[in-house]
């Protein structure tokens, strides 16, 4: 008998009507003879609502307590879905992360899964039950509730699929697959039948929130067959595949963007060995992750140094940089939290020159100023002002003909 892990995101379980529709879909799958483990997110908006409640009391909230609070969102949906299944005559049982248990490290609000005990789930499956598991949450070795970072239900689903050696992990969401870019920004975006695991990893890490990056990493590591599809309409969705040969080979597969970054610059720093570590050392000590880094060519013995961080860390990073500026005798520390990063992704880039030039040309024609650039083997990213995001994505989509299926 085939074993599937289904995952339903927030919009798909956004109200009782939708939870009942999900239950109908699960009943149908079970009637086909599939064994099913179902992971659900909190109802749409619920995690944000809980976050706002916490911030209304303590800002920033204590991360251990925040996890206790955030995990309640998913606990509501597992119980409601289980009831809806039972109401339809389908035996079902719900589990929180701690009940499974899904054991994680102690990194509250961004915990990593260390181990999953599949004993109770397998016993339920053997009795013909549908097992409903809360996404996004786990438990530490000593019993504290943890959460896995925003979008973490994807990772719960993939990790369960790996641990149970499921035949496929199906991520049901509010779009019918992975598109060339976010269809909410570019309506002409095209659904991809397949995307390589490597490209999906880049897209996710560069800001495409359709899959949490850790879920893609997990799928790669444990070879979990993974598919993204709609919970509202039937269709094949998008298969994340490991076989590059079977994938259409366009130069560019997609455009990702990230609205969550901010840029910091220190101007007129003495240009001498060790300066980069003097600037970034204190940032790292404050546990702030740095993404892009650019150092200008020095002139007159001084240079400028720019880097990006998550927007949530902008204020903290700027305070640190101002201190560093004084210590180093630099001219000025400045910042901008109205930037976005836009990236082109494609394995075809490896073997083709000229992609960057074409990208910069398309942006120049729209009068969009590029503030930073970074490249790797299969991606090119630029930082631009946030007001140009939609224009940049659409003009790049058109310049690279992403709306057309490659011949
Ligand atoms: P869920 O609540 O089901 O986890 P998410 O909101 O996390 O759903 O992810 C689905 C959303 O991801 C879509 O509604 C879409 O706006 C966005 N998205 C961003 N990039 C892409 C892309 N390349 N393809 C499809 N969807 C994308
Ligand atoms: N409910 C969590 C969030 O909003 C986890 C998820 O939906 O995957 O981030
Ligand atoms: Mg999601």
Automatic annotation (TrEMBL):
Residues 264-347 form the ACT domain. Pfam families: AA_kinase (PF00696), ACT (PF01842), ACT_9 (PF22468). Keywords: Amino-acid biosynthesis, ATP-binding, Kinase, Lysine biosynthesis, Nucleotide-binding, Transferase. It catalyses: L-aspartate + ATP = 4-phospho-L-aspartate + ADP. CDD domains: AAK_AKii-LysC-BS (cd04261), ACT_AK-LysC-DapG-like_2 (cd04923), ACT_AKii-LysC-BS-like_1 (cd04913). InterPro entries: AceGlu_kinase-like_sf, ACT-like_dom_sf, ACT_Aspartokinase, ACT_dom, AKii-LysC-BS, Asp/Glu/Uridylate_kinase, Asp_kin_monofn, Asp_kinase. GO terms for molecular function: aspartate kinase activity. Pathway: Amino-acid biosynthesis; L-threonine biosynthesis; L-threonine from L-aspartate: step 1/5; Amino-acid biosynthesis; L-lysine biosynthesis via DAP pathway; (S)-tetrahydrodipicolinate from L-aspartate: step 1/4; Amino-acid biosynthesis; L-methionine biosynthesis via de novo pathway; L-homoserine from L-aspartate: step 1/3. Its EC number is 2.7.2.4. Gene3D superfamilies: Acetylglutamate kinase-like, VC0802-like. Belongs to the aspartokinase family. This is Aspartokinase. It comes from Candidatus Methylocalor cossyra. The gene is lysC.
